[in-house]
Fold these 3 entries.
Entry 1:
Amino acid sequence: MTLSTIIEGQTKLVVPDTGKDIGPASKAKIFYNPAMRSNRDITVLFGKAVAKPGWNVLDALGGTGAKGIRLANEIDADLEIQINDLSEDAFQTIKKNIKANKLKNASASNMEFNALLSNSGYEWIEIDPFGSPVKFVDLAVRRTSKGGIMSITATDTAPLCGAKPETCQRRYLARPMKSGCCHEFGLRILVGNTVRRAAVHDYGLEPVLAYYHGHYFRAFFRKKKGARTANASLENIGYVQWDKKKGYSVHESQPKEDYVGPLWTGNLCDSAIVKRMLKHWDESLTKESQKILQNLDSEISQPPYHYHMDEVASLFESPPQKTDSLVDELRKKGFEASGVHYNRKGFRTNAGLTQIKKLFKKR
């Protein structure tokens, strides 16, 4: 296996040589994916906005340790970072990265996930597996301190977006929906399932930053202790139904047909945190990470669904319109409306299909 030294953000990283490939180094013994750079950038910004001095942070499935190393090196908050991976090769590479950056606040471990967390607790636990995070969530939420953060990444987009509904039912106990809104629903199924798993242990979870980008879903949660907080979190679990005449609608109980869920119906982001993250952005980070956050900031208070311009135009038997222009028209009519952070043709609004159709006919 050939290793290369690169610079990512303000950090020197020793990683598998992927050549011109932008995906994970799947043939290497150590997992590293250059395409997840925006994920790591946003995680660093989140840490700068939220982490408190003295926090113990665990990067539980570290791979090369890229994310944990960057947190240790780029956040000036006196954090103690532990980077773990079951692979011996990954463990050795993590140690090389610690040494390369002369980090005194980072340590490496080589343990199985459940053994590692059997007797240890942390203020922030980061879970970034290959595929679904569901099998790690229950123990991680129990070992996250009260008021602390648990963050997860999911790359099993096919089940969450409706291409493999049986797998989604099995992993997330939810019914997905194939539509122009499938990524929105996939993200909310992931968040909703995580909240429900925490509630089993009498913990409430508040999503403070959740988004979809490229090929992955990402969510950060703040943990709250007690059955009351768990019950409060569960009040944001519901269903979304599709009707060709009325559009999308939110329900507390399961509809009979054309529905997706259970999923999270509340807000996906804390506006104050997103704004603090944007203030910390600098030129060492990708423009991509900045754009994701800017777009998220504009759609925070919108409904738990959106419409896709091409789908709506087809439904109305009308040519597609410019998304930005339609959003402006909806706002002029007194409706809430915004774009969607991962799709230029997506628009989010509390207007029904009848109101949207009237604006189409005016053009």
Entry 2:
Amino acid sequence: MEQFKAMNSMPGAVRDIVYRINERCINLGYKAYIVGGAVRDMLLGVGLLDIDVTVVGDALRLADDLEHLFGYRFIAHPSFKTVTLNTGLNCRIDIATARREVYPKPAALPEVFPSGLYDDLFRRDFTINAMAVSLEGYHLIDPFGGKNDLQSGTIRVMHNKSFVDDPTRILRGIRFETRYGFEMDNKTEELAKASVELGYPGMLSAERICAEMEHVFREPRYTAILRRMEGLGLWKALFGAGKIPPSVYRKLQKIQKGCPGNVKFPILALLEGVHGGKVVEVFIAYKTLYRKLCEYSAREKALRFPVRDKMMERGMLYRLFNGVEKEILEYLYWTAYTWQYKNNIIKYMQEVTGFNFHIGGGDLISLGVKPGPRYNDLLQRARQEIVERGATDRSEQMDILKSVVTKGEEDLGN
């Protein structure tokens, strides 16, 4: 068999670990293989961030050996018979016992049973992910024609029930299409549409949908993925909502261009702009961040400051943005439609954030103000004026506080 030359693209430190894994497998009487996406990516010549190793043997026993001999710590996932090695490298290495999977019902998590390499490859989503490289001799094992599909740019499903067993595979197929410029073959697309029409994606839990969507938003062209989801009916099947509004797409494109790889911001844009359906339910883990965005939006609406249309003074920016988390400000910046809004946010972050105040409630008491609900109002009014004037020392700030208190007393007297 011809040697798999693409192994030479693997970083030397990673190859050393793989060599040690194989050494221990030989000692234990196991067979070890690199499988799945790592084989695909080595053939494509793209970066290698994850390596999956399948062993015909006991992955947990192997991990114990590696920890004892080489000090590699690991995290075990016994229900799936896998372990994740902590090697201190940027490349994640997972080791799994070769297995077959049985799905008790559509869209459910599988039951796992030890098996051989063929079954382990057959359980995978697409032929391009169903190849293996033997660690004894580095030979390519390709029983389903994955290499040919990789060369032709074809996403081909493994079997007719694949999208019934696990409808998240449809979304993964779309991701591969968009990432590599590939296309599903006709049969695969027909099976995807049939799964959607029969409602199988809607049987997935909100947690699984959220996890898959987080993967989507790590892709550099996720707006194209969303449009493809809509075209297949998958968006509606997963979220029970109609199409994503054009205004949301405009925000998503700004985020995609300005801060690629940020998962939270596109989810915020969807929560903000797609109403109804299961969007809030699916992204429930982001509800606190979304609530903070809503609180800011309510403040902006109540104050009616022309922050989106005109350049504003520092005091007004303090009143508008004070207490708003940096992450929310960054989201507002990247989704802003006007240069005035962007520049107002920059001005606040550069000139107002971190401003040192030397006044507090004790100073109000010293000025004869009795504790009560007016405290916060007087302090905020004073701080706004302090920021506006750029008053940095305590004596200046105290003069402003006295002026605000006096004015407040006069207002009460009228």
Entry 3:
Amino acid sequence: MTEPIVDSSENVFSDLGYAPEEAAILQMRADLMADLRKFIKKQKLTQVKAAEILGVSQSRVSDLIRGKWEKFSLEMLIILATKAGMQVTLKTAA
């Protein structure tokens, strides 16, 4: 028997059954972490150099690169993104 195909809600966390408010925060955290990893890769930064730019330890950069999302609050990710020169905006549904 095959599983039915279900259209995505555009938020994997909603699709996994998280409450809407929690799914929104988890999605924002995931997006910011991905953007920060892209920034580090695009700039060809070492973890040490990235740590200097972001004002954190090298081990925190390692956690970021390894996707350890549970170690980063949304607020911390916004701070890191701002230090990386990104403009963080909140997108709301109409």
